[in-house]
Write a structure and sequence with these properties.
The chain contains 8 helices and 12 strands. The protein is of the alpha+beta class. Helix 4 runs antiparallel to helix 5, helix 5 packs across helix 6 and helix 6 packs across helix 7.
């Protein structure tokens, strides 16, 4: 990571001084599908799912934004609106500033650019891993690779393994690994039966990370 604590504090200060505090319940939309972003959001706590809706009406997951991250990042930096929806996956608190405020304050506080570069690089890395994931020939391997990636980003140590602290529907995983929801459900069930992962509602725990990595070889 490039940013240091001082630079991150500089970015947070921009939102703290000008931001409007907003609270969302689990499932609330922050930005509806097709809606122009009303501003730039900094996540104080919680997680937010970014996705697009396909022509068939399916939600295709793009990225999950977590605490201390900003969204919509591409729109904030370039102004390009890609009709991305954002919805809270847990009780979430944000600070919202206008795009004009964001641009002005970032220009006046160049140190705040470093954490933005870190976030952009992380987003690029995740999308690159998603593309590389598709090189695995079997759906099971693509699912395993995806879950490992998510555990690296959103995982915490639990008593029985690594818990991914974000709810992932079968459709979220399916759209991320280029598989049908039915095939994804079947392969997830197989991994559960093998004792490699466990599932509580939409939350996954990787119970044997070494064994899962061996499946990718």
């Amino acid at each position: 990571m490039i940013a240091n604590l001082k630079q991150m504090a500089e970015l947070v200060d921009v939102f703290s001084r000008y931001g409007v505090r907003k609270t969302y319940r689990k499932g609330d939309f922050v930005i509806h599908p097709g809606e122009q972003p009303p501003g730039v959001f900094y996540i104080i706590r919680g997680i937010v799912k970014a996705y697009i809706v396909s022509k068939s009406g399916e939600e295709n997951l793009l990225i999950i934004r977590k605490q201390d991250e900003i969204f919509p990042l591409i729109w904030a930096i370039t102004g390009q609106d890609r009709s991305v929806a954002y919805r809270a996956l847990a009780p979430t608190v944000t600070l919202e500033i206008t795009k004009q405020q964001f641009e002005t304050e970032i220009s006046n506080h160049p140190g705040a650019l470093a954490p933005l570069l870190d976030m952009t690089t992380e987003m690029y890395r995740l999308h690159s891993e998603r593309i590389l994931n598709l090189e695995y020939k079997t759906v099971q391997k693509r699912i395993v690779s995806y879950l490992i990636t998510m555990s690296n980003r959103l995982g915490v140590e639990a008593k029985d393994g690594i818990l991914i602290e974000a709810p992932l529907r079968h459709q979220d995983i399916a759209s991320s690994v280029n598989a049908t929801r039915e095939t994804t459900s079947r392969e997830i069930s197989a991994l559960v039966k093998k004792g490699l992962i466990s599932k509580n509602k939409s939350y996954y725990t990787l119970k044997n990370i070494d064994a899962l990595k061996k499946l990718l070889k």
